[in-house]
Amino acid sequence: MQFLTLIGRRIAWGLGLLVAVLVLNFTLIHIAPGDPADVIAGEMGGATQESLAQIRAAYGLDRPFLEQLGVYVARVAQGDLGYSFYFNRPVTDLILERLWPTILLVVTSLLFAVFLGTFLGVYAAKRPSGIVSHLVTVLALVGYALPVFWTGIMLLILFASWIPLFPVSGMYDISGPREGLTYVLDVLHHLVLPVVTLSTIYLAIYSRLARASMLDVLGADYIRTARAKGLRQGKVIYKHALRNAVLPVVTYAGLQFSHLLSGAVLVETVFSWPGLGTLAFDSLLRRDSPTLLGILFFSALIVIVVNLLTDLSYRLIDPRIRSGARA
Q1: Rounded to an integer, what distance in angstroms lies between the CA atom of residue 110 and that of residue 253?
Q2: pTM for this one?
């Protein structure tokens, strides 16, 4: 019962935050310089003042700000994110079409960074004065210092131009099959460089975080007791210490999901990955505010859901939280 109450409170908090983000995004885009009617007229090859007035009336741009905001919030509540000025399509269709490439890129990068970073951090903590620990520390500092776009460009030059192991851009070969195992392997082949680029900085963070957390846990009394009982080193580390040491990594991974989405904009642009990042970039250049608002709304929704799942995952990872909730 307490667990359901906790979920209910988190969902209510998330809905309130989502409405606040929706209003803030709409306000910021509304006060930003530029007139969407001018952009639409430019795509049409020009327009007179009368035509501009008709465009503003057709899209509701001539109404007062609060009326526009109220209409937009009401539409979003009904699942309608509006109509794209530039793409001439419903925003929801555009986002759903570009969503799964971004989810594929971000989730793969996050899993790659969390698992490999935790493994490197734990391995380095087992021998904190060893050469592997120092090597992980140096690589983590270098990886954290590298800008994402620079890493992507360097990987493209090295592994797509000089040593042509991976494709230069895109998500799949346009001349290849679009179904079956061959298509899956083709997508995975195109996914390698974007994932390595996006996960590099987070791999560095998670390895440092896991190393510091594991060193702290290995000095705890219950670990010394487990060793005094004669348990094997591997069982002490992976069964008793890792569960507590990984909590900060899980917390940080949940918080960093929003940063991964923002980083995906740069990576998708560098690798011409057909996801929400490139769609957001195109929408921003063309002042396509309905599409941009829809992407920001979806991104906020995803981040809120991920943070909710992160909170709930604590109960599965740490038994102390479950017992505390029952107390």
Answers
A1: 8
A2: 0.78
